[in-house]
Amino acid sequence: MYYIGYDIGSSSVKVALVEAATGKKIIVLHEPQNEMEIVSLHPDWAEQDPEIWWQYICVATKRAIREANIEASKIQGIGISYQMHGLVIVDKDGNALRNSIIWCDSRAVEIGNTAFAEIGPEKCSEHLLNSPGNFTASKLKWVKENEPEIYNQVYKYMLPGDYIAYKLTGDITTTKNGLSEGMLWDYKENKVANWLLDYYGIDQSLTPDIVENFTNQGVLNEKASKETGLPVGISVVYRAGDQPNNALSLNVLNPGEVAATGGTSGVFYAVSDMSTGNKTNRVNNFVHVNYELETPRIGKLLNINGAGIQYRWLRNNMGDETYESMNRKASKIAIGSDGVVVIPFGNGSERMFNNKNIGTHFLNLNLNIHNSMHLFRASLEGIAFSFVYGMECLKEDNATINVIRAGNDNLFRSEIFSNTVATLIGHEIEIYNTTGAVGAARAVGLKDGDYNKFGSSITTNDHVMTFLPLKNKEPYDKAYQKWKQELEFILTRKK
User: Fold this and answer.
1) Residue 78 in 3-state DSSP?
2) Which residues 6+ apart lie within 8 Å of 371 measured at CB?
3) How far apart are the first and last CA of the chain?
4) Mean pLDDT, 10 residues at a time, over the chain (495 residues)?
5) Could you tell me the pTM of the whole model?
6) Which one, of 305, 471, 428, 308, lies nearest residue 380 by Cα?
7) Cα dist. 27→11, 60, 67, 383, 410 in Å?
8) What is the dihedral of CA 17, 22, 24, 27, to 10 degrees?
9) Cβ within 8 Å of residue 373, ≥6 positions away
């Protein structure tokens, strides 16, 4: 018997099949082979057609069943991971009314900032553990203000994962963790933050019904069965945003445990209990996948928009370089990159800088001595330093750090990057060979509520290596302080 998991990203849709009994990976693949289109009609806008996600899920599911050479009838349940904070709106027939406004779209920043000022920091911090910010609720308010003819047709709003669950089951539902991503969960009252909807002038009836994770959230209908090749009647058991799901995939479920991601954007996601609250609006707090009233687990998320995209930009503009060749050349340059500094924030506004968009900067280039190898090293170091800076923000927000776990992909494949981060923050970084789609598939098995068994299976089967802090910290610290000095000069100019 098997479970299937989906991870709906902004670049591709991933699918994984795992053995139900053991969690062993059977197959992991993605569609399309190239990246999905992101529509950007104006600067800092980002949209995708949600129907595209569904089409690629159907293609990828049939391909996974065929290539794994299994009987589809033996697939017993579905788990869903998805890009966070997106907005999907549908009419009474369940048809999407416009493109999804996705996570990296910044159009609603001022709407959220105004709400935070008018409602008051105290209420927002106590009830939302966040500012309304540039999240799903604020994006829906943007539609109301700017596209009233579309807004007037809205039957329900959803997160991207809710939309995929709807396409599978025909049921329009959401979760507490999904609502918290949209800034619509009131932690103090343990219910939907209808007062924020009222403030925005949004009808409370637009909120879908809430379902719990690790339970039957709806069953696959005949239409979805025909389109995906999955058996009629199997349950969607789990859905979570990509960062909470990544944490689950890495067995990050308890206070003091931290999941790290080094993809297009970078993330630290630290699990805490409710007692730590929030002390800074540079860190976001979300309902974690194992949140319960008795054990209210919160994920403190520190996002760095400008991370892997910086390194990818270099690769794309340096001829025939691969990441492996770039890493190899970077390793020939000394710590500190002979003075070259890269400030890697060219991917939109940064939450940890209070939504300032400070851009990417290449600093201190000497045209007589520096070459592309210095740029490779300085970029890796600059991204690593941004993670260290983010960790300082997390600790400022009262996060406890005991262990850091990361997937064996993207930036964490680079020894320069991982050694720099581990050495400067003074914590081991455990690397695991898992993915979000695999984690979502395995989560189907958590219907039994045995988190310890779930976690020990990951530790036993997926651990690859551990990066230890290096003993000679001084050159790393010197380079970081220089980087930080340049960053703070730029931030001062941006005020």
Assistant:
1) strand
2) none
3) 58
4) 96 96 93 92 94 98 98 98 96 98 93 96 92 94 98 98 98 97 95 98 98 97 98 98 95 95 91 72 90 91 92 94 95 98 92 88 97 97 97 90 89 94 95 94 92 86 93 97 97 81
5) 0.89
6) 308
7) 19, 11, 8, 31, 20
8) -20
9) 329, 330, 332, 333
